[in-house]
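Case study.
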Amino acid sequence: MGGRLTFVQGNEACVEAALYAGLDFFAGYPITPSTEIAELMSVRLPQKGARFMQMEDEIASICAIIGASLTGSKVMTATSGPGFSLMQEGLGYAIMAEIPCVIVDVQRGGPSTGLPTKVSQGDINQARWGVHGDHSIIALTASNHQDVFAMTVEAFNFSETYRTPVILLFDEVVGHMRERLLIPESGEIPLVERLKTSVREGVDYHPYLPREDGRLPMSDFGGVHRYNVTGLFHDMWGFPSDNPQVVHELLRHLVDKIESHVDEVTRFREYYLDDAELLLISYGSAARSALHVVMDRRQHGERIGLLELQTLWPFPTALVQEKAKHARYVVVVEMNMGQVLQSVKVAVDRPERVFLANRVDGVLITPFDIRNILRLIQGKGV
Amino acid sequence: MARPKLKGHVINRDWCKGCGICVHFCPKRVLELDEHDKVVAARPQDCVCCKLCELRCPDLAIEVATEQE
Amino acid sequence: MAIKDYIREKFFPHIWCPGCGHGIALNGLLHAVENMGLKKNDVVMVSGIGCSSRIAGYLDFHTLHTIHGRALAFAIGVKMSRPELTLLAPMGDGDALSIGGNHFIHACRRNIDMTAIVMNNKVYGMTGGQYSPLSGYGTMATTAPYSNIDQQFDVVDMATAAGATFVARTTAYHVQQMADILEEAIRHKGFSVVEVMTPCPTYFGRKNREGSAVDMMEKLKTMTTPIGSKAKQENPALIERGVFVKKEMPEYCAEYQKIIERATKGN
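After joint prediction, the assembly is written out as follows.
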């Protein structure tokens, strides 16, 4: 395995991966702790003939990337909580109009301005339900830079495969921490390129008529097919429709195209799950501390394991149910008031065995914090 | 330049909403609204082919067809 | 190509009310586009939300009907990715200058090559007649039942101050001027703003006792005057129409191309 060894921030790893995936256009607005992504994009994109733009706000940023995506470009924006809030309407538009794009949210403490420079994982449910109306979404996360790279490439691949926005939910610790990253050789990670329509000029093209496999071949704006794109419910040509059957079919298509492919988009890591009586479930930077606890307790002979989630949405319910089957306790380790905890409780057979080990004060949850909470759960006292 | 000669007023009755803009601003009073509030060319012989009705129609419902004399 | 070749005929008659000035703006735009002989595959029309935004669905271009106020932001993304395309961004007055006001001034400032058409009917029509930032002090609206105390923007002044390199105003009455100005705006290499004053007889007209569509068109004739006219000196209340600004400035996409050249030189 070749590649280029680097020592970078997580935000830089994300940029390297986006370039690897073939990013053509980035629009963004400065916000801590995601700003390094925009800064580095402004350097790197023009070097490969691609384009970077600093917009007037996050609303404009997401709108600009959606517009650019329609011309056939691979696009991305990056932000943090307050900016992510502003992007929700545009995000909903991209969902409705089925436009591939990648949105990075490097999470900081919230609500509101919150803790701009401190870590949090408080946007998990916003990623799922920040947009009004029924919909589905893909959201990925990572705990280390090699996985930041891999998940960023996956985000582009999923967005092209399913014609949908994909959210990368990183956090301040992962974004700003420096560690090694091996940038793979070109071609080492497969890339999904946009599925283009084979319909020829002059033949009726249906931009919103899914193929049998659910995929929608696109035609670039500026190409030979002129069609309409709208955030209204629309027919197979993209023209507004409030016909109940059209609405019914489109909404189900938007949800099903993701919810029917949970297995295909589920990414995770597992450590010592075979005989684990105590199952930790974690993700992002919190999973680093959780893994530390697992390695440490294993040396003491404790039957403890970690399920590290990388796909947060659609939630891998079946996977969690399966992995939790033989555990006496399930402890969700996260830096919020229990956002993934809710989904885990729904997934497992015995929700009363599920506990939360969290920290919400802007400080990374430590192995020491987790260990203390585990002792309490096990009735050992701190 | 040769003066254009009127071939006829092509009126799309399905598109006309009867706002009366073309009728009112016709310099030669060629047009009228009928009993269904749709425009008709009542005095086509007076038309000077200025095409202002065509240009001002909000509904693209009237066209002044001409030929060069 | 004939005018009708540029429209999606199957959607006509359109959604707009009888006598709606937006239809006349559509008509004028079609004449400009036809006169220029634009190729349909080369034009992208990006609109926002409101009565005005429905124009995109009726035109046989690449059409992008977006979200309220954001048409210019979407259009910028399209243009940055495909600078050779012709971008048209028709917007309403509330769309462009209330919810979209920030995008509007920044698009003016950047001088990116596209044409913003502000179809100004001084009211939110789609939602039923609320006042907009262009309604003006003393007007009546469903949300100003005791008369409006909001002062209005002047689209031309605002676009000029924000740095647009082509700024013009015309009206639904002055149709020949409208087509000519729109053509000039589209041909201009830079960010063009054209305000088209359009009557809304259904809401603005009714609430403000301005009479029928015909009466409102008459008013557009009498309340406006060419830029620098003698009539304006005698009656300062008249609204000037014509081309206010036309200047050459570095265009954004062309400037970005220079950035790419600078960046790739270092490789």
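Observations recorded in class. Chain A has two domains: 1-195+203-265, 269-377. Chain A touches chain C through 44 residues (CB under 8 Å). We will return to this complex in the next lecture.
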